[in-house]
Amino acid sequence: MKNTGLLRNSRARRAASSSLLGLLVCFFLISPAAAQQENWQFTGPRFALPPQENTVITEAEVDADAAAATTIPLWSATATDQNNGKKYNVRFVGKSPLVRSSSASATVSAPVVALDLKFFNGDVFRPEATDPKCGFSSTTAVKRVLGSPIYEKHSYSFGGTSVGTTQYVDAFQRANFYSYTQPGGTSPGYHVLLNPTAHFYYYTTPISVPRSDSAIGSGRCGPVAGVSITWLQGLIKNTLIPALTRSFGIGSTQFPVFILYNVVMCDSGGCGILGFHDSYKNAAGHSQTYAVAEYDTSGAGFPDVEALSHEVGEWMNDPLVGSASTVNLVPHFGNIGQVSGCQNNLEVGDALSGHTTSVHMSNGVTYHPQQMVFVGWFYHFNPSLGVNNWYSNLGTLLGFAKPCPPGGTH
After folding, report:
1. In a structure prediction context, what are the per-residue pLDDT tens digits for the chain, which is 410 residues long?
2. How far apart are CA 262 and CA 30, in angstroms?
3. What is the dihedral sign for C-alpha 369, 354, 19, 237?
4. Residue 221 lies in a domain
5. Are the beta carbons of 332 and 367 closer than 8 angstroms?
6. Beta bridge partners of 192
7. Could you tell me the residue range of the domain that residue 216 belongs to?
8. Angle at Cα 228 formed by Cα 223 and Cα 230, nearest 5°?
9. Which residues pair with 214 in a beta bridge?
10. CA-based nearest residue to 275, from 192, 394, 370, 393
């Protein structure tokens, strides 16, 4: 199979995920003056790195976790930069498509957790509640997520090449490694699927956000809120996931997806963060992965599941960013998409944030998941491993990354 010298498989693993980087320049459709927190203002939609822990999970610890099947499934490989021959250790969620197998499909439990938040002015934002003002008279953000291409299957063809009937991020991943997943390839049965489980989970009493960690604004159809990303990260890691573990058995072998409704996150750059993915060592010593994404109807962020597709795609391709410092590094790229300057992590969404496609699902809703970048773009593979020899799943990138500085793409 072509390019086997560029991406070499190690043995199948199980491992954990982490955060994302990036800045996105765009305009909010709300009034910045509407923010009521003293120091925060609503800004353009963007993605940002969540606060990082001082504790770094080593590759050996991750591999031990993997061997014991006490975290999510992951396969490992060595990627070689075709520009200079430098080798990089990489890990991806799922089973390896590089190894011929009759069982290359993996399914990860990814329960949807609705975050009900109450703010200092009394406004409550509930992802599992109807909202007639914003067009949700008979549905909810949670129902829209569960019926979206993130969880439901659809037939996908990129540039006239079918990658099958499957979930959107899995379709991207099959296209990402198409040299191996194509008919007649090493692993045509390769899949990485998400199972939302039988129920979603939420607190019946909304969680009160401290006034100092919140902001309130006005969207196009109702209020919009901002919440400190530091406060939210601490809440999820220290309170919510432990409680979900005790009550529902949700733990390190699962990938909980926390949904916000018309609530963005805030840091020193203002309120506008739409999502992040993260990992940490839980109380049992295992790598716990999770993601947070906003479902937006307010105009404060990107529509429907664009942010969620970004986070799930990055979790699937860069599950250890921030927790294992030597894994999934890439040659520096940048000055493209949302990336201002240079970065060196395998975040497949950053260079194409804002580039979407339309997917009409069986529930009658048209969703807008994001286009993402193939692994070959980062490591200067030529030809690409991807479908049609492309470097992104909709063909926006037809050449690999230019070294940064100056960055950009061929």
Report:
1. 344 435 665 433 333 322 222 222 222 333 333 444 446 888 888 887 777 766 677 778 888 888 899 999 999 999 999 999 999 999 999 999 999 987 899 999 999 999 999 999 999 999 999 999 999 999 999 999 999 999 999 999 999 999 999 999 999 999 999 999 999 999 999 999 999 987 788 877 899 999 999 999 988 888 999 999 999 999 999 999 999 999 999 999 999 999 999 999 999 889 999 999 998 888 898 889 999 999 999 876 788 999 999 999 999 999 877 666 678 899 999 999 889 899 999 999 999 998 999 999 999 999 999 999 999 999 999 999 999 999 999 999 999 999 999 999 99
2. 12
3. negative
4. yes
5. no
6. 106
7. 7-389
8. 155
9. 227
10. 370
- Partners of residue 359 on adjacent β-strands: 367
Helices (H) and strands (E) in the chain, counts: 8, 24
Say if 81 falls within a structural domain: yes
Structural domains counted in the chain: 1
- Burial (Cβ within 10 Å: 0-12, 13-18, ≥19) of residue 148: buried
Q: Is the dihedral of CA 241, 246, 249, 251 positive or negative?
A: positive
Residue among 176, 172, 170 nearest 371 (CA)? 172
Give the CA distances from residue 78 to residues 6, 360, 375, in Å, rounded to whole numbers and listed in that order: 8, 37, 12
Instruction: Take residue 142 and report the two structure tokens written for it.
Output: 């949670």
Is residue 405 situated within a structural domain?
Answer: no
Main-chain phi, psi angles of 246, to 5 degrees? -65, -40
User: What are the φ and ψ backbone dihedral angles of 137, each rounded to 5 degrees?
Assistant: -70, -35
Rg (CA), the chain: 20
What is d(CA 211, CA 213) in angstroms, rounded to the nearest whole number? Answer: 5
β-pair type (42-46, 270-273): parallel
Asked if residue 402 is part of any domain, the answer here is no
| Length in residues, the chain | 410
Separation in Å, CA 350 to CA 83, 90, 95, 276: 22, 18, 24, 12
- Of the CA atoms within 13 Å of residue 263, those in its CB half-sphere come to 26
256/109 Cα distance (integer angstroms): 8
Q: What is the C-alpha to C-alpha distance for residues 172 and 263, in angstroms, rounded to an integer?
A: 27
Burial state string for 242-252 with b = 16 or more CB within 10 A and e = fewer than 16:
bebbeeeebbb
CB 219 within 8 A of CB 75: no
Q: Using CA atoms, how far apart are residues 125 and 140, in angstroms rounded to an integer?
A: 11
> Encoding tokens for residue 241?
């996931």
The count of other CB atoms within 10 Å of the CB of residue 96 is 24
